[in-house]
Amino acid sequence: MTVERADPPARLRRWLTAVGVTGPSMAPTLRHGDAVLVRRGGRSVRPGDVVVAVFRTRPELLVVKRAVRRQDGGWWVRGDNALVTDDSRAYGVADVLGRVVCRYWPRPGRLPRGPL
Q1: Are strands 16-20 and 35-39 parallel, antiparallel or unpaired?
Q2: Of 29, 61, 80, 113, whose CA–CA distance to 95 is shortest?
Q3: Which CATH number does the domain housing residue 44 bear?
Q4: Structural domain span for residue 99
Q5: Hey, what's the signal peptide range on this chain (predicted)?
Q6: Residue 5's pLDDT is what?
Q7: I want to staple 62 with a disulfide (CB 3.0 to 4.6 A). Which of 3, 15, 43, 114 is the partner?
């Protein structure tokens, strides 16, 4: 799931920010058109969390992925949809900007931990 952006840090300066999801990489957990709330700060990111991140090799792109493991001072992130490889397998380590805490549109609810 990616969200085009001009300046990611400016986009997520508030502690709670709404982000729109595009693309199929996080299906079935998140679908194209879902809207999620992203929290900066709070508890630290853990493996299995859904996060908003920026790949070091693609700094112009804001992505929604699942944190897999810490690596090289950042995170290895993957989408839940194994058929889509626009994640760390293609772009390497990402820097996490915030943790997705819930989906609020169109199907409100908390997100499951770990891939389905």
Answers
A1: antiparallel
A2: 61
A3: 2.10.109.10
A4: 2-105
A5: none
A6: 41
A7: 3
Distance CA 76, CA 66 (A): 9
**Token reading at 96:** 């996490």
**Torsions phi, psi of 69, nearest 5?**
-160, 155
The answer as to whether 54 is a domain residue is yes
Q: How many C-beta atoms surround the C-beta of residue 68 within 10 A?
A: 16
Average pLDDT over residues 17-28: 93
Instruction: Dump pLDDT digits (tens) for 65-96.
Output: 999 999 999 999 999 999 998 999 999 999 99
d(CA 88, CA 97): 15
The C-alpha angle 24, 30, 32, rounded to 5 degrees, equals 50
57, HSE (Cβ side, Cα atoms, 13 Å): 9
Domain total in the chain: 1
Query: Residue 1 above 70 pLDDT?
Result: no
